[in-house]
Amino acid sequence: MVTPMQESFQVLVERPPTPCLSLYQETHRSYPDNRQDRLRYKNLVNALEESLRRKYPGRDALPLLEPFRVLGDDDGFWNHTHEGLAVFGAEGIFRTYRFPYVPRELAVSADSFHTKPLLRVMQSTERFHLLCLTRQNIKLYDADRYAVEEIELPPDMPRNMLQVLGSETTEPEITIASFGSAGAGGVIRHGHSSKRDEEEVDNEKFFRAVDTAVLERYSIPSGLPLMLAALPEHQGLFRKISRNASLLEGGISADPQSMTTDVLRVRAWDVMAPSIAARIRAAAESCAAAIALGTGTSDPEDAAVAAVGGRIERLLIDRETLIAGTVDPVTGAVRFVPLEDPAVDDVLDDIGEIVRQKGGEVLVLSATEMPSETGLAAIYRY
Q1: Is 76 within 8 Å of 363 (Cβ atoms)?
Q2: Was domain 276-380 assigned CATH 3.30.1330.30?
Q3: 128-163+197-259, which class in CATH?
Q4: What is the per-residue pLDDT across 208-245, written as a single tens digit (0 to 9) for each?
């Protein structure tokens, strides 16, 4: 079973038992391209075994590798692959992730998991929530450039107007006037509240409940931007009453029920792409300026020392670069070693995790987006 990234990422970074096995490979969605995926995976598992046996000749590697081998024989899993795959294993831990893009192939055992490609997927510069809103129901998606995946909402989450309002729908206001020509009693009733007015009140109550639930349960915990897909008239009302600071100005002004998930993905990314590109450019430019002024660095060894001291405010990491070595979590000293050493990890990965633990921002960018050629760029807090 594929594990939701946001729910299990912490398991991989919070002092896992060593050694930690990390495997990344390209996979394919359809036949015949996916015919060789399973064979390539089994070869990478064999490489993990060889690495472990060299470092720990007296240790039984079978318990660590057994879940990897079981996965290799799972027909159902290999019939539903995406563009890439990540698999992690350690004592008491086994996690699998399908990737929406092709990662760099890697099979390594180390003192910690290699999580940089995961961070690339999870980071908020590319991921966002997509709220599809109608009077009948809501759906919430975890979205990025490559996919939109529906989030399973908890039972007490407001999903439709009936659930929120029940029988308390707005009744029309009645006024009574007397006229002599009205016959005995002379009473004429006037309905001042039209059907449209009633619907507007009901919409507002429903939208407020949805806004509060999404804000408290998803936007605040994740910090992700929120995009709204709704009819134009619902866009205006929801934005008027919303208290969600993560709600993006741009949205999809159409009935979300009329679109497939793939159409939603394309239209959502058309809205997101310009703002994401602008944020990445701004982050790279600010790092470049800080390096030029001496208030930042592009040197991995300097960055490692600053990271353990909690001095890095923002760190940019090149997703294509891997620097074999380890970072001392106390002093920040970097030890460069061959990648095949089972005790090694990616120095950039280690620095990124330290910065995250110290409350800094970490962005994983492509080589062309990076402001340096060393694999990282950082801005100091002080």
Answers
A1: no
A2: yes
A3: alpha beta
A4: 999 999 999 999 999 899 999 999 999 999 999 999 99
